[in-house]
Fold these 4 entries.
Entry 1:
Amino acid sequence: MNKHKLVENMKVSTSAVKLREAIDKAVEDGFITREEYDRIITLASEDGEIDAQEQVLLKEFHQMINDKDIKFRKV
């Protein structure tokens, strides 16, 4: 189990829910592909705005990558 928790017990926007689902799905095995990473970044900015909840999710997502809790899968 990862030591990071992505935004819990917080009223979240619909776009943040979609983003969280995409992140959770992409990192469930501890690895992420470049395609999954790009899809997550695109999803975050899809509506033209990255709201506060999405910012928190992206920060946690990038922290998991920096901490090597999740790693990029070699293709």
Note: The beta strands are 31-32, 71-72.
Entry 2:
Amino acid sequence: MLRGRVRLFADGNEVELKPGQLVMLQPNVPRKHQADTEAVVLLTVTGAIGGG
């Protein structure tokens, strides 16, 4: 999270992300997000560890 405020909903939980925070999500978990303010988010996606 670079700027703003975003709420993330995943796996039955709600998390409010603020600048400087990060979250790691497991694959295949339904999720959605909602920006409460204008926001800048850095999204990094990687493949499975071990090449799976």
Note: Residues 5 and 41 are 9 Å apart (CA to CA).
Entry 3:
Amino acid sequence: MKAYLTVEKIMGILQISRTTAYGLISSRRLKSYKVGRLVRIREIDLKHFIEGKPSRKNKK
């Protein structure tokens, strides 16, 4: 099973604000998934973001 992280968890890991976290998501620099009204980020996508690897763009 793939591990998914909340925006709050990402904020803690990256030490960024909520505004910055959602900015990264809305600009598609950090790949995310919507589960109903919730936003989740896969651990592997966060790892790629931290390493500077390009991620695939979100599909809308």
Note: The first strand starts at residue 4 and ends at 6.
Entry 4:
Amino acid sequence: MDEEVERRLERTESHLAHQETTLAELSDVLAEQWRLIESLGLQVERLRVEMQALQDHQDSAQGPEPPPPHY
């Protein structure tokens, strides 16, 4: 019986070590993905500001839109 308990304990310890390794790897991947999401969010915001500036410039360069011909 002692051998059975020892074998089960070793197997449990092995599984635990594997799970700890997997958890550390997943944590690293999650941290990298979060950094990427933050970077992409900043890029989107910069592009939004740039697009708004271009739109504002285009609107001010064209002046008011003339009424349609049927008016």
Note: The mean pLDDT is 92.
